[in-house]
Amino acid sequence: MMMVQDNRKKDFSDGSFLVADGAYSGEKNSRLASEHNLKLVTTNFTGRKPDEIYADFVFTEDGKYLIKCKNDCNPEECSYDPGNDRSVAYFQRSNCEECPYRERCQPRFLKTRVRKEVSWKSVGRAKQLQYMQTEEFSEYAKFRNGVEAIPSLLRRRYHVDKIPVHGKNRTRLFFGFKIAALNFQKLLDYINNLDSYASNEEIA
User: Is this model's pTM higher than 0.70 or not?
Assistant: First the structure.
């Protein structure tokens, strides 16, 4: 996870932000970050993807009770199931029968009303899916990829996770050789690129 203050691009000019992987996503973590004037951005998505209509479902602040669905309908009754961490809401049949999102929502139709179970986590994950389609998110993703490129290269190509020595000084020296090898390779690549782009003089 990385916390960065960056004002070089307009999308980053509103302050500090946290860039992390999908394990840190969720409404709870996003709220905790905002309470500390931080923007939490998770750049990949793990687990099952919910339908994006859930991004427009409205919950109470504690994330336990559903207030409104995608079709702006309010439940007649709502309870919280702590075992499954879900909100159990009941709607009028007429509202759900005419709803354009009925097939995507897939509520359970009972005799006199409709039952819908949904979790606050699903809402947060759906919002994350929507956000991942924006230009702002792509800028954050590029930033994280740039920061993680060198550590990833050191682990994949130079195997820094497997240092066959013991002791602080020996480990530091061994790791230093790995960094030197990486820098030397980057220098060679730079020189080769200069040669490939250099203009070739024609001999008359």
Answer: no
With CA atoms as reference, report the closest residue to 80 among 107, 95, 68, 62. Answer: 62
Which pLDDT belongs to residue 143?
66
- pLDDT value of residue 58: 93
37: left (phi over 0), alpha (psi -120 to 50) or beta: left
CB 81 within 8 A of CB 63: no
Per-10-residue mean pLDDT, the chain, length 204: 41 62 70 79 72 92 92 95 93 93 94 93 85 78 63 75 83 86 82 68 48
Q: Could you state, in order of their start, the residue ranges of all structural domains in the chain?
A: 2-45+132-137, 52-124, 157-196
Phi then psi dihedrals of residue 128, to 5 deg: -65, -40
Give the tokens for residue 85. Answer: 């961490």
Task: Spell out the long-range contacts of 79-87 with Cβ–Cβ below 8 A and sequence spacing 24 or more.
Answer: 81/117, 84/117, 84/119, 85/119, 85/120, 85/121, 86/117, 86/118, 86/119, 87/59, 87/117, 87/118, 87/119, 87/120
